[in-house]
Amino acid sequence: MLRIHLESLSVEEIRRQALAACEEGRGEAALQLVRRALAIEPNDWQTQELAGVVFAQLGDSEQAAKHWERASQFAGSPIFTGFQAGRVWMRLGQDEAAKRCWLYLADLEEAHPLRLFATGLQALMANDWVACRENLEKGISANTIMESLNNDMRGHLRELDKRGW
């Protein structure tokens, strides 16, 4: 029944249903839907981004990062997707993959919050505590749109403080 129904839907409608399933906490249903959308349009950044959200909800950070990284490679994708993919790779201890994702931020102005955050996190990976703190603090000051991201970056600063760095 679901297969017949899915075959008659556009990718956009499948994505909408997958997002609704995610929001309702029905991760497995969302995964089935997003897989169908990917089968139809594997090179669509919105579908790749949604796949990352679904996998993150299911607790599969590695698959989430892979899909977010893939989404960030397509024209029209938001730069935030690549930034988030890099953060997930960093948390998984995949520093080179994180750096690869953050390469997409190089075209941003030097004072752009995401570029500053990525620079700070790269400094953290390199154990350069001064550069890490400086860039994260500048990024927090520059970021007036997403307070939750500022709070995440403050968490890194608190870790530096706890360690005496």
Number of individual domains = 2
Helix % is over 70%
Class by SSE composition: mainly alpha
Q: Give the overall silhouette.
A: elongated
Write the CATH architecture name of the largest domain: Alpha Horseshoe
CATH domain topology of the largest domain:
Serine Threonine Protein Phosphatase 5, Tetratricopeptide repeat
Low-confidence stretches: none
CATH-defined superfamily of the largest domain: Tetratricopeptide repeat domain
Number of helices: 10
Work out the strand percent.
under 5%
Mean pLDDT: 89
How far is the first residue's CA from the last residue's CA? Answer: 58 Å
Description:
By secondary structure, the protein is mostly helical. It folds into two domains: 1-102, Serine Threonine Protein Phosphatase 5, Tetratricopeptide repeat (Alpha Horseshoe), CATH 1.25.40; 108-165, no CATH class. The protein is 74% helix and 0% strand. The protein contains ten helices and no strands. The chain has helices spanning 2-7, 11-23, 27-40, 45-57, 61-72, 79-91, 95-102, 113-125, 129-142, 147-162. α2 runs antiparallel to α3 and α5 (61-72) packs antiparallel against α6 (79-91). The longest helix is centred in the C-terminal third of the chain and has 16 residues, at 147-162. The termini are far apart. The mean pLDDT is 89.
Blueprint (SSEs and pairs):
Blueprint: H1 2-7, H2 11-23, H3 27-40, H4 45-57, H5 61-72, H6 79-91, H7 95-102, H8 113-125, H9 129-142, H10 147-162
Characteristic terms for this protein:
165 residues, mainly alpha, Serine Threonine Protein Phosphatase 5, Tetratricopeptide repeat, 2 domains, elongated
